Amino acid sequence: MKKILIVCLLAVTLPLYVFAQHSDDSGNVKQLMALQDRLNQLGKKVINDDTEMERLNSNAEFIQTLVQALKIPHSFNFPFDSVKAVTIVNSPDSRYRIISWHVAFDDGSYRFYGTIQMNNPDKLEMFPLTDYTPYIKNAEDTVTNNTKWLGAQYYKIIPVYSGQNPYYVLLGWKGNNVKTTKKVIEVLSFNHEGKPVLGMPVFIGNGKTRKRVVFEYTRQASMLLKYDENQHLIVFDNLAPQDKKQAGNYEFYGPDLSYNGYRFKDGHWIYVDNVDMRNAPSSQDNDYIDPKKQAEIDRSTAAPNN
Fold it and tell me: DSSP states of the chain as a string?
């Protein structure tokens, strides 16, 4: 029991210790802790409020509070790990981090929100992400920026050091509507002015070069999309319809127990068919927990014993 308690205490205190090491003002910690508590409360309302308007109003206050928190010096090193409504993922080179989340609408659709916070100790440097999904007609062929973002909630950043400037591959979940959900392989780079660019023609296969890859499948299924660092391979479930007559109707698509991938070679990602995944974990959506499901988990664990 003592060992378990020690581990739990370390899990809570270590991120704050790391933040304090980068901060010269203990008052920053107190401010961020208070704002983190408020963000946690608002995040639960963004997910659980009964009506769409209530969720949107809570989200507006959430955004204001988040910006207030990020303006505090050295906020980049503060983990905000108790705010379960958002996904925060840092680039492995510590150049930036992405904070992303979503609001669910009553019709089953989603709107995504987020920001790219750069690791700038002197001032807040960030690029808000504006969900432009309804207006992007050919997502796999389009290069955009942070103001015209194909919204998603990212859980993995893969740095690619090819040529003079690195680019980053992002893996994300992208809820869609009542019938289907999506996942996306996005590409983030920064231009000579230091501004973000989304999309890059680096995915080669099936007779086409894609600037990003979008998967769509039935909302009832889970899809594996992960990165195998040892093989330099992005691996994913092969999605197929239950019946060939349903081809192109993605509400009937789901994993068929085979896997494909994109393997990194010479600055590009080359499509690989029939990846051997016999020793891999099952194709459950373990790389990302939908905040709605997480909220239900939190409520069940907090419920008193009967």
Answer: -HHHHHHHHHHHHHHHHHHHHT-S-HHHHHHHHHHHHHHHHHHHHHHH-SSHHHHHHHHHHHHHHHHHHHTSTTGGG---TT-TTSEEEE-TTSSEEEEEEEEE-TTS-EEEEEEEEE--SSS--EEEEEB-GGG-S-GGG--EETTSB---EEEEEEEE--SSS-EEEEEEEEE--SSEEEEEEEEEEE-TTS-EEE--S-EEETTEEESSEEEEEETTS---EEEETTTTEEEEEEEEESSGGGTT-GGGEEEEEEEEEEEEETTEEEEESS---TTSPPS-STT---HHHHHHHHHHHHSPP-
